[in-house]
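Subgroup meeting minutes
Present: P.N., E.W., G.H.
Scribe: E.W.

1. P.N. recapped why we're keeping a running log of single-chain structure predictions: easier to compare across weeks, and new members can see raw inputs and outputs side by side.
2. G.H. added today's entry (144 aa).
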Amino acid sequence: MDARTAMSYLPENPYSGEQTVVFFQNLIEDPGDLVLKAELEDGRIGGFGVFGEGRIDHLYVHPEHQGQGIGTKLLTAAQERFSHLEGWVFEKNIGAIKLYERNRFGVVEHTNGSRNEEGEPDVRIVWLGEDTAASSARAHTDVD
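Output recorded in log:
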C-alpha cells in the first residue's frame, strides 16, 4: 500500500486495506504462480514479485528500498525460470520503466489507460531475452 501512496498520480484506491491484503494473500497462495520475495537483514520483506508463465503480475519494492538492486534480483530470478516475460507498467512510473529497461525489457505498446482499473495510461513491457549484443558477439565468433 505504501507504493500506491507514493504514486500520487493514481486515483484514490477504491479498496479497503483489508480487501487489498486478501487480494495479495490469494495471489501469493495461487499454486500456479511463482512468488519471489526479497527479505531484508532484519527479516522484513523489502519487495516481492508474482510471476506466471510468460507474465509479470506484480513487482513491488518498498519505496524505502528502491534503488538498492532488489527489483533487479527479483527480475533476474524470474528470468532464470521463464523464457518469456511481459507485463504492464503505468506510463508515469518512470523508475519502474527504467528498471525494466536495465533488465533487457522493451516497451512495445502504449495505451490511454482505458483498459486498466485506474484509467491511467500504461505501457506493455516485454523481456527481450538474452542480451542481444552478447549473443550477436557469440554468433560472430562461432562463424569465424
